[in-house]
Structure formats: C-alpha cells, structure tokens
Amino acid sequence: MDRIMKKLIAGNWKMNGSLQDACELCIAVMDKIEKNGAAVSDCEFLICPPALHIGSLLNYLKDRPDIVKVGAQDCAAYDNGAYTGEISAAMFADIGCEYVIIGHSERRHIIGEGDEIIVKKVKKAIENGLRVILCVGETQGERDKGSAKEIVAKQLEAVKIDGINSENLVIAYEPVWAIGTGNAATVDDVKKMHAFIRAKLKEMLADSDNLRILYGGSVKVDNAAQLLNIENVNGALIGGASLDAKSFVDIAKAAN
Ligand code: PEP
C-alpha cells in the first residue's frame, strides 16, 4: 500500500516523563508494532516525544527506521540565530525528525499562539523538509455558538501558502473540548467536520484528496474502531493513550 494511503497513528507525548521513561516507552512501542506485524501493516506510526529526548530515542530507532517515525511537538518560527530557548525546524530535520506538530490547541490557548506565528512555523517546517501536522479545532464555546466550521475554516485558510501539498501537510482535527477530557467527538460530529475539511482543502490544494486528515481528542482503544473508520479519517493524533505502548498500538489495530 502506498505510504500516503496508510493511516497515520501519531502519539503526542507532550511534556511528560523522564529520559528513562521515554526510552522505555519507545522500545515498548517498537516491540509491540513488530509483534503485531500484519495486524498493523496498514498504519504508519509516529511518536512526538519531548524535544529534549528526541536525540536519544533516534539512537534506538536508527537500526529499525521504518517501524516508527519521530516528530517534534513544535518548532521555532525563525531560522537559526539569536532566539534563546527556541529550536528551529532545521535542527529537528538535521537530527532525523520527519514531522512536526504545529498549532496544537495547548499552544494556541495556553501559550497564546495565533495564526500569524503558526503560519511562520509552517513555512519554516516545510522549507526545511519537515512534514507538518497542523492542528485545527474549535473550543466548546465556539461550538455552542454554532461557529465550529467557521473557526476551522479560518485556521485552514491561514496556511494557504505556496509549497504546501499532500506530502508535506497533514491536518489534525482536534476539537479543544475533546482533548484530554475523555469526551471524544461523536461519529456524526467527526464525519461532518472531516467532510467539511476535505471540501475546504479541495479549494486550497490541487492534490487535496491525498492529504491525510487525522482526528484527535480522547481517542482510546475502545472508541478507535468507530472513530478511525469514518470516511475522511486517515489516522489519529493521540495524547494520553500514546503514553502506554499497548494502548497506542491497539488503537492502530482497531483502525486496520
Ligand atoms: C492531543 O493532545 O493532541 C490529544 C488528542 O490528547 P488526548 O488524546 O489525551 O485527548
């Protein structure tokens, strides 16, 4: 099966765990993927550990590079230079990251990032050969007001820039109210929003049919089969459940 048609099962480890925890989790994930073989062969796996741990994990992965890819949870909006505390897209690409998450709701709503900085980060990521997982999604208040689609459309339109295509961009629809709450969106909500995103991408890109749209927000083993088999759902971005190797890989099994 073509890479692009595989479901992307992406784990966002956020700011969790010691170096030892990260190494143990990485090894456990690799082992579980290998043991499950054909049962997960329709999936591409990605882990996004804390930036500090990525270099060490890539050492474990270098002998088995096709099993699981590594991504960053964010990158700087700038090229290398005097930006204390930042890590550039070039640096992540240089050490072997393939993906970067940009615009996660925790960065939009806790750290206060808006579309202006997000689009700069997307540009830097693609200029440096990284694939971007752009997170979009409405808050509970926005959904209650009936403006969920409008919010998502605006977040998508912000990244209508030269050079984006289905190879270097993945969209993750993550309703903010579903993240870390145990309250996943319903099948109907996901179906409608993913169809809307697909239609919106068609207006923006020539090869939009091949672009993967992930669902994220309280994906667990027991709701994975339902959520990941909806039309236009091409994988999942998983927070909490990705911190347990068995859950993470069992979600992929349910998707297969
Ligand atoms: C996330 O943070 O991207 C996420 C989807 O978290 P969780 O799976 O824990 O809801």
Mean pLDDT: 95
For the termini, the CA-CA separation is 13 Å
Q: Give the amount of beta strand, in percent.
A: 15-25%
Helix/strand order: EHEHEHEHHEHHEHEHEH
CATH superfamily: Aldolase class I
What is the top-level CATH class?
Alpha Beta
- Uncertain segments are none
Strand order of the largest sheet: 1-2-3-4-5-6-7-8
Computed CA radius of gyration, to the nearest angstrom: 17 Å
Choose one word for the global shape.
globular
Helix content: 40-55%
Bound molecules: phosphoenolpyruvate
Structural class: alpha/beta
**CATH architect. name:** Alpha-Beta Barrel
Number of helical elements: 10
Provide the CATH topology. Answer: TIM Barrel
- What is the strand tally? 8
Largest sheet: 8 strands, parallel, barrel
How many domains, as an integer? 1
What does this structure look like?
With 256 residues, this protein is of the alpha/beta class. It has one domain (7-255): Aldolase class I (TIM Barrel), CATH 3.20.20. Helix content is 42%, strand content 15%. It is built from 10 helices and 8 strands. An 8-stranded parallel beta barrel has the order 1-2-3-4-5-6-7-8, surrounded by 6 helices. Strand 6 (169-173), helix 8 (187-204) and strand 7 (213-216) form a beta-alpha-beta unit. The model has no long low-confidence stretch (mean pLDDT 95). The chain binds phosphoenolpyruvate. Phosphoenolpyruvate binds at residues 12, 174, 179-180, 216-219, 237-241.
